[in-house]
Amino acid sequence: MTSKEKHAHAARVLSRRDFLKLGAGGLAALAGGALTGCRLAAPDPAPTYAPIPTAEPQPATQPPPTWTPTPLAPTPLPPDYTPVPATPTSPPVPTTETAPPLSRAALMAHWPETATSRVVLVRHGGVWDGDTPNPAAVLQMLDTGIGALADTPDALAVWRALFDPGERVLLKVNCIAYGGPTQPAVAYAVAQRLQDAGLAAENVLIFDRTDRELGAAGYTLNEGGSGVQCHGTRGDGTGAALSQATVRFYQEFDAYDAIVNIPTPKEHGTAGISVAMKNHYGSINRPGALHGGRCDPGVAELNAQPTIRDKTRLVVGAALKVSPGDWNRPEREDALLLSFDPVALDTVARDILVRHRQDKGMGVDSLIEGAPQLNTAQTLKLGATETELIDLREVVL
Length: 397
Description:
By secondary structure, the protein is of the alpha/beta class. The chain has a single domain (12-41, 101-396), classed as LarA, N-terminal domain (Rossmann fold, 3-Layer(aba) Sandwich), CATH 3.40.50.11440. It is 31% helix and 18% strand. It is built from 13 helices and 15 strands. A hairpin with a 2-residue loop joins strand 3 (128-129) and strand 4. The longest helix has 28 residues, at 3-30. The chain is globular and about 50 Å long. The N and C termini lie far apart (51 Å).
């Protein structure tokens, strides 16, 4: 690289950092100053594998292909494919009656413990201020969604029932593609409500594999300072022997008491879709070893491990944007998905991706037939993927 090229590269890096600081400042205001004290932590551990949306697993060094939509005749859906029907739901109506305390176990129960698994889809046409999500609108969507999920007008009561004040909570985001990561506004809104429910900001960790990916996605790094924590892994923890390979969870999953899974819906060339369940490929040290068989049974077996199954309290799908094709060119959806059932949420997210691809005349078989992990996960009783077992509630604000 010539000296002129080095100078130009440095200028671009400075400009990006300045931009990220501006974005983080707005989100810090949302958290009432709880995101201060940020500093860059230790050097990133090199991730073993970076999944890419290709038809077959490729070396980690190969960048994701650029997707350019081709005008085609609409591809008909398979005759046996039925999207999950939505039941419109009005926002909960406040009441003056004293409601009984909410039970965490009752809130989190889903199929097969109950007849169906509920998924709430909240849309807000005004959530974007230009290219930036409106923090107040995101909080409104989150409050409405969790209230509809629990059938209560008191959203904060749900957070208090799900999490104890002294607990440490890990928010698992997805930053594998810089253009289409979990939108920071959603993760910071969840962090805000956890604090409102009585948790210390320092006990909340926004987490993905590396500092580098988190920072590039717009998150404010913070390890050990005051406020919400945000950093990548610092090493391996508990092992898990799966049928395809033995892997280790990152040590942060041992250190924290509870998990909120915050994925963003994406098409995946190997697994069909990457949403809540596959988001945990960023929670282990050897995700590349679980890509055989179209990630089946790897995805389902991983999510059946106690580290995930027993610690996950809530799934919040960040669908303000979704990636039906190229991960670096996501498309707006203006929605949040909430559920206690990761399988049902993934199924509804797949319907959203199907619609986006059909609108562009793209094939959808890869999303439907190419996501066998959904059926395997239902067989393992992790949740429901059959239409009649999912109670989808749609709210439009």
